[in-house]
């Protein structure tokens, strides 16, 4: 077990201000190699919670354990426990590029391993590995971090944390302020870190689509407590629960839900993008082909003879392409081509394995 918090309370207090309870009794365990998202409204305690995962904040009450070490238990080795926790659990703050400071990218990424007292060969090996993991060209090492784009600076900051070789990477709103391509490539980076380096990923995010792509488990916070904790497919498809936490379901989930409500045989509980795509590709066989598409010219949508599993799909067919059929027919047309079909099957296989 990597991180466990028990009965965790955190009260912020400063002179002249009323104490503010940010965490009010949180119990949570996150294991090695998990992909977890922490979501919830502004002020619900997400950032406060994750700063406890490596001992950056001290609990007002409760316990924090990293790999079974009780971080705050009294004892002469407490500093050692805290240092060890910070090595094992890497925390990437919001807008981490604001903390870059060195003259070169290389020196910035090397800062933490040098602080560990490692020899320069080991430092160099770690810097190279971390830069490769985040997809930064080694030539950038000589540049000033401040000459890079926002997305590249964020990668430098993440590489600086990865150079500690943590087993868990915790990122607080890592895509905030990035453009859509930057967001997408950061999501890919997180999935790659998990897949290739086996690192557990904990993502604090307000973006349900991003969470659907990254997380297999979702923890919802509200008023300093955990409101829900479960598989992404359960939490992200529970519209009432999401609404209570001021979140909307992912767009893909709404799409599958609308199709399912019309009797198209899709599983509306898919949220991971590859799994959603596989559902849509499979469902294309039950939707009308657009006139003029390859499938339409052939006279029937692929798989059309197998009759819809639910009557309502028949309704969709009769209403024709002018209404619901336009997009769906296009999908059916793609399904009719050899390459589209093969891709669909591969995606279906991947989706099933992952979700
Ligand atoms: N340094 C601080 N001093 C005093 N109060 C704080 C401090 N940091 C956070 N708080 C308060 O603690 C509560 C929880 O804040 P926290 O930043 O953990 O929420 P959050 O879920 O991360 O919110 P957001 O989505 O806006 O980032 C809020 O009421 C906040 O105002
Ligand atoms: Mg926050």
UniProtKB/TrEMBL annotation:
The keyword Secreted does not apply. Pfam families: ABC_tran. Signal peptide: none annotated. Residues 292-355 are annotated as: Disordered. One of its GO terms (biological process) is cobalt ion transport. One of its GO terms (molecular function) is ATP hydrolysis activity. Belongs to the ABC transporter superfamily. This is ABC transporter ATP-binding protein.
């Amino acid at each position: 077990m990597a991180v466990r918090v028990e009965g965790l309370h955190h009260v912020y207090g400063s002179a002249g201000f009323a104490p503010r309870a940010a965490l009010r009794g949180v119990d949570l365990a996150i294991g090695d190699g998990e992909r977890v998202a922490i979501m919830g409204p502004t002020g619900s305690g997400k950032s406060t919670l994750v700063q406890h995962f490596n001992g950056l904040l001290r609990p007002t009450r409760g316990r924090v354990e990293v790999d079974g070490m009780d971080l705050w238990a009294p004892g002469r080795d407490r500093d050692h426990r805290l240092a060890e926790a910070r090595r094992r659990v890497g925390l990437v703050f919001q807008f981490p590029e604001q903390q870059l400071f060195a003259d070169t990218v290389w020196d910035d990424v090397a800062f933490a391993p040098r602080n560990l007292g490692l020899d320069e060969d080991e430092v160099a090996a770690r810097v190279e590995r971390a830069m490769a993991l985040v997809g930064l060209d080694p030539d950038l090492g000589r540049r000033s971090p401040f000459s890079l784009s926002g997305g590249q600076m964020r990668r430098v900051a993440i590489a600086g944390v990865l150079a500690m070789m943590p087993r868990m990477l915790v990122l607080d709103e890592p895509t905030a302020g990035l453009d859509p391509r930057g967001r997408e490539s950061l999501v890919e980076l997180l999935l790659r870190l998990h897949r290739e380096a086996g690192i557990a990923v904990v993502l604090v995010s307000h973006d349900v689509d991003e969470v659907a792509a990254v997380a297999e488990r979702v923890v919802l916070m509200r008023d300093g407590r955990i409101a829900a904790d479960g598989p992404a497919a359960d939490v992200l498809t529970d519209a009432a629960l999401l609404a209570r936490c001021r979140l909307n379901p992912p767009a893909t989930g709404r799409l599958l839900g609308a199709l399912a409500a019309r009797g198209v045989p899709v599983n509306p509980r898919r949220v991971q993008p590859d799994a959603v795509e596989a559902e849509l590709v499979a469902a294309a066989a039950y939707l009308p082909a657009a006139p003029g598409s390859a499938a339409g010219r052939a006279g029937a949508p692929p798989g059309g003879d197998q009759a819809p599993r639910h009557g309502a799909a028949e309704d969709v067919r009769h209403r024709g392409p002018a209404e619901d059929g336009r997009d769906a027919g296009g999908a059916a047309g793609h399904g009719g081509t050899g390459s589209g079909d093969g891709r669909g099957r591969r995606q279906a296989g991947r989706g099933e394995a992952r979700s």
